[in-house]
């Protein structure tokens, strides 16, 4: 048993190094770095010129965090400072070693109405637009890659960039009466926060073309039908109080986050590598991640309890 534990420990340290190598290869989970002419400080400074709202993060004992897009007077549109705050919150999630899951929601019963159109008007030149888009692609790609199982809880409307944000989670739950709509075409745009690439992977190219080409409003029923939504939550009567939908989402997510944090995080990592890497590389990464749980506490406990899976 002692030898087994030592072997597990050795494997865990070598596989941590492998995971760190993987993240380094992916520029710490980012798509763009200085190699691509991306200057994070320069664009963050430009974005801070457009303040308003907040992005709040609540890390809970249960291992499930709640990330709230909070600008109700603008239907939770992203101001420039909120884009920078989103990136900071993602960094906090990346360094939360006890975390298992995260729910992304909007404040006051609606998800997110995309970019703050006031900021969009002020930075309507293509150079700055592309820099903002690189910044948001980095932040949302890192969000999707955190070793936590993530769910977008869509209440009310998810429009434009808000629909793109919803695709940057592993799952989407839609509250009754909610809608996800890629309204970009109506704005003379296409998605730029990575939403089109992610949408194709979620619903397939043909459905993505219909949703983007027709700027279709996806209600919960259509969402379930095409695989954009993973579940529908009934919005309670107002007297049942705010927060009930969030509780429902937490309970839905807990079916996947039950268990030891290292195991849940390893589950996300093997799926992430399978989703993103070429097969040979995904297989090697899976072997490395396997090494982090083999002989680990949860594994030894399960062996000692002679668990049956009837
Ligand atoms: C690459 C990213 C691409 C993008 O995200 S482009 C942006 C896409 N989003 C939009 O075009 C949203 C436009 N807004 C709307 O369609 C409607 O406001 C919406 C969200 C359906 C809500 O409709 P209603 O419930 O009737 O409420 P309302 O229109 O009176 O809105 C309440 C207040 O919120 C504001 N608001 C909503 N979305 C916003 C946005 N994206 N940027 C800036 N302000 C926004 C709206 O202007 C209104 O403010 P105010 O009360 O008039 O001062």
What brief labels describe this structure?
about 300 residues, alpha/beta, six-stranded mixed beta sheet, three-stranded mixed beta sheet, 13 helices, 9 strands, globular, disordered N terminus, binds Butyryl Coenzyme A, EC 4.1.1.94, Ethylmalonyl-CoA decarboxylase, ClpP/crotonase-like_dom_sf, lyase, methyl/ethyl malonyl-CoA decarboxylase activity
Description:
Keywords: Cytoplasm, Lyase. It is built from 13 helices and nine strands. It has 310 residues and is of the alpha/beta class. The strands form two sheets. The protein has a six-stranded mixed sheet with strand order 1-2-3-4-6-9, with helices on both faces. The protein binds Butyryl Coenzyme A. The site of Butyryl Coenzyme A (BCO) has 19 residues, from helix 4 and strand 5.
Write the layout of secondary structure elements.
Elements: H1 2-25, H2 40-48, E1 54-59, E2 64-70, H3 80-94, E3 101-106, H4 117-122, H5 126-145, E4 149-154, E5 157-159, H6 161-166, E6 171-175, E7 179-181, H7 195-203, H8 205-213, E8 217-218, H9 220-226, E9 231-233, H10 244-257, H11 261-276, H12 279-293, H13 297-304
Parallel strand pairs: 2-3, 3-4, 4-6, 5-7, 6-9
Antiparallel strand pairs: 1-2, 7-8
Helix pairs in contact: 1-12, 2-3, 2-5, 3-5, 7-8, 11-12
The structure holds Butyryl Coenzyme A (BCO).
């Amino acid at each position: 048993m002692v030898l087994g534990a030592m072997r597990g420990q050795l494997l865990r340290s070598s596989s941590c190094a492998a995971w760190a190598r993987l993240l380094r290869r992916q520029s710490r989970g980012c798509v763009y770095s200085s190699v691509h002419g991306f200057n994070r400080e320069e664009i963050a400074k430009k974005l801070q010129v457009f303040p308003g709202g907040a992005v709040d993060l609540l890390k809970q004992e249960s291992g499930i965090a709640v990330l709230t897009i909070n600008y109700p007077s603008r239907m939770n549109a992203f101001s420039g400072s909120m884009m920078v705050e989103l990136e900071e919150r993602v960094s906090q999630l990346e360094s939360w070693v006890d975390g298992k899951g995260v729910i992304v929601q909007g404040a006051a019963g609606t998800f997110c109405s995309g970019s703050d159109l006031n900021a969009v008007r002020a930075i309507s030149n293509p150079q700055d637009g592309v820099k903002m888009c690189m910044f948001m692609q980095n932040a949302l790609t890192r969000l999707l890659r955190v070793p936590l199982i993530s769910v977008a809880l869509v209440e009310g409307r998810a429009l434009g960039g808000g629909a793109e944000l919803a695709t940057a989670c592993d799952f989407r739950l839609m509250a009754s009466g909610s809608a996800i709509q890629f309204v970009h075409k109506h704005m003379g745009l296409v998605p730029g926060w990575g939403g089109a690439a992610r949408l194709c992977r979620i619903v397939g190219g043909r459905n993505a073309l219909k949703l983007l080409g027709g700027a279709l409003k996806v209600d919960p029923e259509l969402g379930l039908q095409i695989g954009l939504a993973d579940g529908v939550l009934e919005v309670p009567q107002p007297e049942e109080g705010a927060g009930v939908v969030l509780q429902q989402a937490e309970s839905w997510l807990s079916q996947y986050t039950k268990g030891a944090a290292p195991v849940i995080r390893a589950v996300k990592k093997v799926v992430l590598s399978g989703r993103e890497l070429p097969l040979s590389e995904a297989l090697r990464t899976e072997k490395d991640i396997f090494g982090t749980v083999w002989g680990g506490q949860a594994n030894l406990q399960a062996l000692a309890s002679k668990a049956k899976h009837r």
